[in-house]
Amino acid sequence: MKSTDPEKEIREALAVLAAPEKAVSFRKFFKTGKGEYGEGDLFLGVTVPDQRLVAKEYYPKISLPELKCLLASSYHEHRLTALLILVLKFEKTKDQQLQAGIIDFYLSHLSSINNWDLVDTSCYKILGRYAFENGRADLLRNLSGSEVMWHKRMAVVGTLYSIKKGVFELAKDLITENLSHPHDLMHKANGWMLREIGQKDKEELIGYLNLYYKEMPRTCLRYAIEKLDEPLRQDYLKNRI
């Protein structure tokens, strides 16, 4: 049975699970200080596993309009729980119209998806999957062309779904487009997706590295080669290829 006010109940459930000491450490971990990428974000101090439990309980009970209020919250855990709910709603339906509605909802609330964990938890399971299954690479390409770093990270990490399916071209295109981005969080995202490509097809990764490794930021390269054999890793790190 649908809750009378599921959005309020979710807020109350998260409040019960809140731990002030965790909130302090979360503020530091997610760089919320002045001038940092998460500046001004607020935290309750609720762990991700606890948020997943709340999301699992409430995803059938809350509508998208009700979820909008949660996603607009100043509290990080409210927004993350809303995104976890959105992922579950997307994964649990085969109705293409409902999936398209979730995509529209997601894209209309990009400003609320404003830290790396919010991006990474949701984008490939929603946008990435939808783009792959419906031939809508333009959704990710458009985000990649944005001036907003979080949009660019959504685009790159969104390709994880297609990478897991053994399709790499879109990922390589978007990584290359953003290879020289100045922010460390993009270096990590690019390197992470390259590493995932290597996990599926080592030769695909090596082929890409041989073209671009000399111009990659060091963090990107280290992430990309993490799973390679140590002698080969050293060859890339020491510019011997």
Notes on the protein architecture:
The protein has 241 residues and is mainly alpha-helical. It is globular. The longest helix is centred in the middle third of the chain and has 19 residues. Helices cover 68% and strands 0% of the residues.
Instruction: State the end-to-end CA separation.
Output: 62 Å
Based on CA atoms alone, the radius of gyration comes out at 19 Å
- Tally the beta strands: 0
What does the average pLDDT come to?
96
The number of helical runs is 15
Portion in helices: 55-70%
Spans where pLDDT lies below 50 across 5 or more residues: none
Element layout with pairings:
Elements: H1 6-17, H2 20-29, H3 48-58, H4 64-71, H5 76-91, H6 96-107, H7 116-134, H8 137-144, H9 149-158, H10 160-164, H11 169-177, H12 184-200, H13 202-212, H14 218-224, H15 230-237
Overview in brief:
The protein is mainly α.
Looking at this protein, list some descriptive labels.
mainly alpha, globular, 15 helices, 68% helix
